[in-house]
Amino acid sequence: MIFYYLKLGWLSIRRNPWLSALMVAAIAVGIGASMTTITVNYMMGSNPIPSKSDQLFYVQLDTWDPNTVSDDPFEPPDQVTYNDAMALMKSAPAYRQVASNRSGLVLEPENRDETPFNVDARNTFADFFPMFEVPFLYGGGWDSNADEGMERVVVLSREINERLFGGENPVGRSVRMNGMDFRVVGVMDHWLPVPKFYDVTNGAFNDSEEVYIPFNVAIEYQLPRNGNTNCWKTPDGSGFEAFLNSECVWIQFWAELRNEQEKQDYMAFLAAYTEQQKLIGRFPRPLNNRLDSVMEWMEREEVVADDAQVMLGLSLLFLLVCLLNTIGLLLAKFIGKSGDIGLRRALGATRGTLFRQHMVEAGLIGLGGGIFGLGLAWLGLRGVEILFGEFIENLVTMDWLMVLTAIGLAIVSALLAGLYPTWRACSIAPAGQLKTQ
Amino acid sequence: MLSMQDISMVYRTDLVETHALRDFSLDVAEGDFVSVTGPSGSGKTTFLNIAGLLEQFTKGRYELDGRDVSSLSDAQRSKVRNEKIGFIFQGFNLIPDLSLYDNVDVPLRYRGFSAAERKRRIEHVLDLVGLGSRMKHLPSQLSGGQQQRVAIARALSGEPRFLLADEPTGNLDSQMALSVMELIKQINDQGTTIIMVTHDPALAGMASRNIHIRDGQVSDVEHDTQLVAAIAG
């Protein structure tokens, strides 16, 4: 019977094209508005690395000053100092771990006619690539020997490789940055985790970096840093060395811990390390180290902004208003079909049969609203992009799940809106309608 | 076949109480062709609605095909309507955007027949009413008489035991009315019980029995149809 109901629903929609169009438009507008905000919230809150998000832990050490509290007195700083990062890299018992920070370099193209340009860079360690499952187009990441040997190697993003080498395999070739030659060891494929979980402190929705070089090389050659740096205490002395030995936090630190035991062992190490540091006058606050999984870290950093959630609530209210309009329009449409309903009742249709028939019709209207709503949502997302600029472009993309959600939400909304009108229409006494046809 | 005993039907509003039928009793045997006449507001249509299980009555007992239908649920009444009763309306009541084929298909869909069985029945009844070659046409492409023939085909498609006709020729000119009445008579000759409401004594005269309703009651118990025809003149 479902195909029969679909046929009748389609005929009914065609019979009152303007009324049907109004209903489709009402649902489409509601779906367009709500899906715009749902998509932004969904992308903000999505799991950027679902295969191992519960095995990757962001490390926080509470090195902060007890007398200088920031937003929350109980929160440890969201990055670590250079000395702590190096101590953890050397001794902490993790399956994999990486310290990294954001940087910016000046790249000098081989072609002398082309002017040098700035590139976003990340200073990191060898484990960065397998740990975060970075996909490679050519070659791969460097190994730990390159870290220890301070080899000047580089991994390029696909986009920068297209710009420099026309997309060809550049492994083994050289790239000159900040006056030094770096040997290309790999080219990443498209890699755009949303949110950019491995460094939310420098913009959770920014693009991935364009080049990746060994952290130790960046330190050795005192290459510039671009990311957030917070200090509660002025460095003792001046110069790069003093900065490295300061209490300034500027490094993101991640550990890959495959099970609960590894996590407990790691926490125990952090506690022991903190106690040891207290003996030399550091870590003045009570023990407050943290290991947050990817999603815990996203939540703690409030990656999903409050105003985005408020907008989501408002857009759902707007959808509700659209549905109330649709209820009124459906009521008018279905009551207008009283004669048809009375006739079908006389010919043997039960109330249940007619209820299903009209719910299918409501669902068809919802489907139409969903399809047009998707178009409006796309326009809405483009509008958000124009309003907030390019930095949000990674958030305003609909994946298949969102497309299906839009269609599903539209159909469910239309079915809910159709409940009362359908019930009213099916309650019509058939006898009263047959004479008036 | 059909037995109504002391049926009363009262329509109530806050201000008015209208007795559409009062202690109405009637027996119709299988194969009968009964015409029902009476002035406007006498209760003819109410009687037909109750007979067709389209309305519940206030009081009395109604047996259809030996079964008390007073206490049937709404769904059971729908099933009885679908399987045992065919309706022919004055205004034809065809669905305008469905083809003749699909119009006749409506009651069969609710019966749950297979597609092949539905096709067989639809083609058969449309042939029977002389419209077998126009199955894909829309009702608006037919004359009034042809539309009523489609309505008759729809009523017959479920092979009902019992056909209820409410002024079946009321919207037709005399030539078409005669043609439709001949078809109805032909159906009755094949064994289908027919009750037909009409205000036209000449058409009533074509039935085998006539009852006259006045003020919700059978006033003239049963006229001989020959007499009715004679009155019609």
List the helices and strands and how they pair.
The complex is a heterodimer of chains A (437) and B (233).
Chain A: H1 2-15, H2 17-45, E1 56-60, H3 82-91, E2 96-108, E3 117-124, H4 128-131, E4 136-139, H5 144-148, E5 153-156, H6 158-165, E6 174-177, E7 180-188, E8 211-214, H7 215-220, H8 240-244, E9 252-256, H9 260-279, E10 290-293, H10 294-300, H11 306-335, H12 338-346, H13 351-388, H14 400-426, H15 430-434
Parallel strand pairs in A: 3-8, 5-7
Antiparallel strand pairs in A: 1-9, 1-10, 2-3, 2-6, 2-9, 4-7, 5-8, 6-7
Helix pairs in contact in A: 1-13, 2-11, 2-13, 2-14, 11-14, 13-14
Chain B: E1 2-12, E2 17-28, E3 33-37, H1 44-51, E4 59-64, E5 67-68, H2 74-84, E6 85-88, H3 100-111, H4 115-128, H5 144-157, E7 162-166, H6 174-189, E8 193-197, H7 201-204, E9 209-214, E10 217-224, H8 225-232
Characterize the structure shown.
The complex is a heterodimer of chains A (437) and B (233). With 437 residues, chain A is α+β, with helices and mostly antiparallel strands. Chain A has 2 domains: 2-47 and 305-436, no CATH class; 62-288, no CATH class. Helices cover 50% and strands 14% of the residues of chain A. Chain A has helices at residues 2-15, 17-45, 82-91, 128-131, 144-148, 158-165, 215-220, 240-244, 260-279, 294-300, 306-335, 338-346, 351-388, 400-426, 430-434; strands spanning 56-60, 96-108, 117-124, 136-139, 153-156, 174-177, 180-188, 211-214, 252-256, 290-293. Chain B is α/β, with parallel strands linked by helices and 233 residues long. In chain B, the strands form 2 sheets. In chain B, strands 6-7-8-3-9-10 form a 6-stranded mixed beta sheet, with helices on both faces. A 4-stranded antiparallel beta sheet of chain B has the order 2-1-4-5, covered by helices on one side. The model of chain B has no long low-confidence stretch (mean pLDDT 87). The interface between A and B is medium-sized, with 24 and 28 residues.
